[in-house]
Amino acid sequence: MRFLLLLLLAYLLGSLSGSLILGRLRGVDIRTQGSGNAGGTNALRTQGWRFALGVVLLDVGKGVAATLLALHLAATGLTLSPAAQALAAGFAATLGHIFPLYFGFRGGKGAATLAGVVGVLLPLALAPLLALWLLVLLTTGYVGAATVCAGLALPLMAALAAPEARVAFAVFGVASAVLVLWTHRGNLRRLRAGTELRFERARLLARRPVRRP
After folding, report:
1. N or C: which end of the chain has fewer CB within 10 A?
2. Is residue 208 part of a domain?
3. Domain tally for the chain?
4. More reliable by pLDDT, 42 or 157
5. b/e code 64-94 from CB counts within 10 Å (16+ = b)
């Protein structure tokens, strides 16, 4: 029962959507603007970098908070280790971000919250995942594609976990990768159709200097 209450608490914490809370303070709902997604990318496109930075910090922060809370309140007498319980709580917080109870179950895509969970429980994975994300972004200019690639790499990061926690991290990684694919299915469809929005300013590695006669 304590573990189930922990998952519920993590979900409720995840339902505190950064973009929607900050949007209410500004008097806007970014779900009615741009792509309609309540995440950092749409916040950047529609409200500017300061607003988007606040959104990302809040969304990462609730993943961190849910994970730390789970480590502190981990139930005893279960076959699940405290790390496994924390991973489950982090995943529940991510589901709360995607399906927020307080905002009509219309939230973001969960990547920032997952990053907060990974940052607490597997900090060695953050640098390679961020490097992969940046490489894809700087090469293609597609935020969605960069996030999907980083999400698909999550199961591989289980190899960096302690031996006794690798199974739990592998399960978390596979579940998270599937979730990222599902939440970005629209991006993938637009990529195939050639209609996905591109951040040209971020596409640095694909630019070629213009030759002048």
Report:
1. C
2. no
3. 1
4. 157
5. bbbbbbbeebbeeeeeeebbbbbbbbbbbbb
Residue 141 within a domain: yes
Q: Which amino acid is at 51?
A: F
Token output for 171 = 């399960």
Tokens of residue 173, six digits: 């990684």
Burial-class residue 188 by CB neighbours within 10 Å (0-12, 13-18, 19+). middle
- Residue 85 covered by a domain: yes
More confident residue, 113 or 1: 113
What is the pLDDT averaged over residues 173-197?
95
Q: Residue 8: how many CB atoms within 10 A of its CB?
A: 13
**Run of H or E residues at 42:** helix 40-47
Whole-angstrom Cα Rg for the chain: 18
* Residues spanned by the domain of 109: 2-202
Q: Classify residue 184 by its DSSP letter.
A: T
Residue 150 is assigned to a structural domain of this protein: yes
Query: Which of 88-92, 104-108, 131-135, 152-156 is predicted least confidently?
Result: 104-108
Structure tokens at 207: 């630019």
